[in-house]
Amino acid sequence: MNRRKRVQLASEFFVDLICLILAGVVSIVLFRVFIPRILEYPYEEWARYWGTLILAYLVVFLGFYVNLDVQKRSRGKEIYSLVRNATLTFGLFSVLIVLLKNRIVESRYMLISSYLFFILFTAVGRYFLKRFLTGSFRHSKTASLVGVITTTDRAEELISKIKQDWTMNVKGVVLLDDYCRNNIFSYRGNSRSLIAGLAMPVSYNTTSTTSFPDSVLNVPVISTDDGFMDWIRSSPLDEVFVNLPYGDDSELQILIEELEDMGITVHINLPALDDILSESKFNNINCKMQYGYPMASFAASESKTGALVFKRLFDVVFGLIGCLVSLPIIAITAIPLKKESPGPLIFKQARVGRNGRVFNIYKLRSMYVDAEERKKELMEQNQMDGLMFKMNDDPRITRVGKFIRKTSIDELPQFFNVVKGDMSLVGTRPPTIDEFEQYESRHKRRLSMRPGITGMWQVSGRSDITDFEEVVELDCQYIDEWSPSLDAKIILKTVVVVLTRKGAE
User: How far apart are alpha carbons 114 and 108 in whole angstroms?
Assistant: First the structure.
């Protein structure tokens, strides 16, 4: 199941479920408060009633889900499917509560009104969901940010088909007509020279003979020369589509490896199949067609959709709980913190998140207000080997700041980042923008998952780890081995670390 179908399935499932629950609640209020028609029933009967209703909904939704893309559904087909599913849901539900001898079956008002309200609410919910998915989803945080590497003659067709997928947001296109014309991708010599050409910001001294447009279908043309890897390395991209008329799969092996090192999913066309499909009488070939071209996809790691959905739901639920628990602690901490160092209570800083997305991270301010300016003066005392900064007895940290850092209280506002979707409870630590700008391609891979409040580095004795490369190794290990059970282990270890203050400075 592709990404678009997964998003559509999950969205419709939760919208319909909310509409079902809302229909039942409105019916109870209507016929218990305003028009008393429903008798008093014990709690156990109502628990069985709701459990059976949700079970019936699950069976019908999964058994009769309309697989057609929401963008292509007619209004008539939409209405038919929701009325059919509502009828089947309440039909199955009625049979089950009779078999279970649930006394609420006696209340015809409850059943009929819930059924009618369910149809009404679902129609309204599906209408607004369709408008959101087809109109606004591509600009949301959940959309996949896409880059395209192709030639001018292929760009418009490819981009137009990618744009039909409302889960994709095309951020830029690279046009390499001159490279293909001059056989840059047909290089057969030393692979190190090819790596230098594709991965490093050097010049081929190639004179362009092509007039390139500034944009293709309102997608900006980012590069037409060897600087395209710099753009990919520094931009927030989740996927890259490579569609070039090269002759041998091995010609782009280095490019694919470079992109995979960044944690980016790569889709690459199979030119041998391009010609076969154009000549084939039946086009009956068993390959994955993506936006009009046969393509192979490469990803450094891939997680199951169900597990990712569970991770996000877990983040939202426990993020909200974390916010509620944090508020009184933050309020108590605010008094001595602001007394020692006047200034804002919450420190807001731009950080780099999943695949290069920039967001504002929230922390309790543990430093004096001029800390960022003084950092440049202290860089020579940096104890980290690499692209992170840390030093013992940092003079920028206040006395209260040392305490809240030692106890990790300064991290509590990040529960708000988790609820917003910028962060997860467990992940990798997000770098600052100046750190990110110094990353090599392989470093960017540590950002291929949503950053977290805690992670492998935090529970591996972060005060003892001074080599940035070791931090990257731990983060990549987490991404490769990720599972809900691994998150649970890290959370438990984090509790132990916080309580014992081991590895925290």
Answer: 10
CA–CA separation, 413 vs 417, rounded Å? 7
CA-CA distance, 499 to 505, in Å (whole number)? 13
Residue 218 burial by CB count (10 A; 0-12/13-18/19+): exposed, middle or buried?
Answer: exposed
DSSP per-residue letters across 146-202: EEEEE-HHHHHHHHHHHHTSTTEEEEEEEE-HHHHHTTGGG--S-HHHHHHHHHSS-
Q: Which residues pair with 352 in a beta bridge?
A: 358
Of 503, 459, 497, 500, the residue nearest 478 (C-alpha) = 459
Give the sign of the dihedral formed by CA 475, CA 481, CA 487, CA 491. Answer: negative
Q: By CB neighbour count within 10 A (0-12 exposed, 13-18 middle, 19+ buried), where does 497 fall? A: buried
Confidence of residue 273 (pLDDT cuts 50, 70, 90): low
- Nearest Cα to 458, choosing from 471, 477, 445? 471
Q: Which amino acid is at 320?
A: L
Please state the pTM of the whole predicted model: 0.68
SS3 content of the chain, % helix, strand, coil (to 5): 55, 15, 30
As given in the structure block, the two tokens for residue 303 are: 């997680």
Residue with tokens 């092509």: 210
pLDDT 10s digits, 354-370 = 988 999 999 988 887 76
List the strands of the sheet with 293-298, edge to edge: 215-216, 219-223, 168-175, 144-150, 239-242, 265-269, 293-298, 289-290
DSSP state for residue 252 in the 8-state scheme = G
CA distance 58 to 80: 19
Q: What is the chain's Cα-based Rg? A: 28
> Tens of pLDDT along 294-344?
677 777 666 676 777 788 889 999 999 999 999 999 999 888 988 888 888
**pLDDT tens, 209-234?**
567 888 999 999 998 876 788 888 88
- What does the alpha-carbon distance between residue 242 and residue 266 come to, in Å, rounded to a whole number? 7
| Secondary structure (3-state) at 287 | coil
Q: What is the DSSP letter of 238?
A: S
Judge contact between 457 and 486, C-beta under 8 A: no
